[in-house]
TrEMBL record:
Organism: Pseudohalioglobus sediminis
Segment forming the signal sequence: 1-22
Name this polypeptide is given: DUF481 domain-containing protein
Superkingdom of the source species: Bacteria
Alphabetically ordered keywords of this record: Signal
Amino acid sequence: MLHKTLMRCCALLALMPCAAIAQDRIIMQNGDIITGNISLITDEEILIEPSYADEYAIDIAEVATVEVEEFFEIEFQDESEVQARLAVDDLGQQVLLTENGDSRPITLADLSEAAEPEPYFDWSLKADFNGAYNSGNTDSESTMLFADGSVKWGDHRHRADFTLRNEEVNNEKTQEQTLINYGYSWLFNKPWFLGGGFSYERDPIRDLEYRYTASALLGRDIFDDSSKYLGISIGPGYQRQELGDETKGGGVGIWNLRYEHALLDWMDFFHTQSFTWQFYGNENQIYKTNTGLNFDLISDLYMNVSLRYDYETEPAEGRDNEDSTLAFGVGYKF
């Protein structure tokens, strides 16, 4: 008797994981059934990751019905939004199930986008290292360390990055830059956000002993989905710097842009830029960009190529207006 009871318990335990693993389902127009995890539905395609392969796209015109096990954030063609599940009724028709249990028939053509809800808490961190060494007629050494991290807590987002650039040619320093940026944003009325920022920069080669900037910003997320992000912000700020032999401070105007796009499963594009207009002194205008590609190698290890470009209309006396760095290196995502 005890032996039979143990056998039954073992059988139930073995079945429990199978019952717990619920999968989304796509029924094609030709009757084929595809199961897996659906992450995004647009008016053109559905992204699904089956258990036996990487995520891929399916042409939505070839799809008859879709079933998802989780509640998605759904936007319709008329720009109305709801959090609901896509399901199929007893007659095999596509329906929408809301959180309060209501059901209504829809067609996939009604959808503009349906995506998994963002986690309440999320974080990311990555670090890049770029270096070049030459010896012979010219001895040179160039290194750049870049780290970028973000934390999301509900509608509150924090982002920071750190850059350390050094270059030496024939034992003479030709570049020595330290740059730290921090930004905070609050999605008070999605996609609009309020926030603020702080930055510190030092570059003795350009006679910049220090430059502190604090700002208040208003911004908007233009795109924000599983494959791409584009956000812009603008606002006033205060800045203080020691450039050359002069120490000055005053009001500034700031404009920022950040764009990230997963072009392929193994390749990501990124571009950030900032423009600062000093409303004091000689009204220097400062423009900074960082553009590049990340290529996945193994697991969370990637190769990267980036182009950094800095430009100032009024640099220190005897210094160039622009400074650019083309870098190749490796990075790691934590």
